[in-house]
Automatic annotation (TrEMBL):
Residues spanning the signal sequence: none
PROSITE patterns associated with the record: CN_HYDROLASE (PS50263)
Pfam families tied to this protein: CN_hydrolase
This protein's UniProt keywords: Hydrolase
UniProt KW Hydrolase keyword: yes
Official protein name in the record: Amidohydrolase
NCBIfam families, sorted: PRK10438.1
Amino acid sequence: MSGLKITLLQQPLVWMDGPANLRHFDRQLELVSGRDVIVLPEMFTTGFAMEAANNSLSQDSVITWMQAKARQTDALIAGSAALQTERGAVNRFLLVEPEGKVHLYDKRHLFRMADEHQHYAAGDKRIIVQWRGWR
């Protein structure tokens, strides 16, 4: 089994401004090549906000953006976003493969000291993703 090359991208996020944050990551991702996995920050579209209902980006638009970036970089793109779902607001971790396949995980253990559990529904599923020979 060969090694797995992982890149972590971090930035000071623009509070509650999804389009501005995606533009920043567009620029950063242009500089990334030869990686297997690229990890974006938690709640990379908004910052660690408790106002998910005010998120200007839908799950579909976040997934479409991540699919384009995964194709562009030929890497698995991962990151979480505050999203509205049929269960209410969730802190959803998305893993997107270059071929477009999407894996979703809703954060189970919410950060109580920030009252995250008051604003987001906890997930109840576990996922295991196989990627380039790794789990």
